[in-house]
Amino acid sequence: MQGEGVTAGLPSAFVRLQGCSVGCSWCDTKYSWTRDAGQETTLDQVLTAVAAAGVENVVVTGGEPLEHRAFVGLVEALKSRGHRVEVETAGIIPPPAVSVDQWNVSLKLRHSNVATEKRLNPEAINAFRDLGAWFKFVVVTERDMDEVIQIQTGYRLPSKQILLMPLGMQQGDQLQRMPVVMEWCRRYGFRFSPRLHILAWGPKRGV
Question: Which of 36, 78, 147, 190 is surrounded by the fewest CB atoms within 10 Å?
Fold first, then answer.
């Protein structure tokens, strides 16, 4: 089940590609950072597993999927089999010329403890904006909102393409922060995104 973004609640198959050089301090999938920590497989095996899930929507995620050499071939194979493809990315690499139905770009803020030049790539952000990507920001404080507005203004991101999500890997953190984040969305004309997988299962892997 897609847990966040504009398609939250949509039954989906997830394909997680190993490897990520971003290194956010609060990352909830740090097990995906190391390339050799995943399960070695083949494209045919992945496609068989996706087909067995019996859903149209496929979410390609990571790690940082755009850093993976198999990314383009995987997306092309999924599209050739009639799947709708979403991609979850940190937006640090310009999108390749491949048919993706929905780009979900999670730009990192200062509280990720990632250097600015590493987490904000103007070429990539501008390219995703022009593709109509959705931009997700994980927020906690008003200071985070100041940074979101600064990024929005600097990269001319449409308000209707920005989503805010509360930081937190526990159900209690999400429930506590949701009302204030919803108020920020109302104030600035952004969309609110829940984290349904956290609300339903907590910080559990594989849900």
Answer: 36
Task: List Cβ neighbours of 56 (8 Å cut-off, separation of 6 or more).
Answer: 82, 83, 84
* Secondary structure tally for the chain: helices H, strands E: 7, 7
- Kindly tell me the sign of the dihedral angle through the C-alpha atoms of 65, 69, 72, 75: negative
> What are the structural domain ranges in the chain?
12-201
pLDDT bracket for residue 138 (50, 70, 90): very high
CB 62 within 8 A of CB 20: yes
β-pairing, 191-192 with 134-139? unpaired
pLDDT of 29 higher than 80: no
150-177 per-position pLDDT tens digit: 999 999 999 999 999 999 888 888 999 9
Asked if the model's pLDDT at residue 185 lies above 90, the reply is yes
The half-sphere exposure of 54 on its side-chain side, counting CA atoms within 13 A, is 0
Evaluate whether 182 touches 188 at the Cβ level (below 8 Å).
no
Residues 119 and 22 sit within 8 Å (Cβ to Cβ): yes
Going by C-alpha positions, the residue among 138, 133, 117, 125 that lies closest to residue 192 is 138
Sign of CA dihedral 151, 2, 93, 85: negative
**Which class does domain 12-201 fall in?**
alpha beta
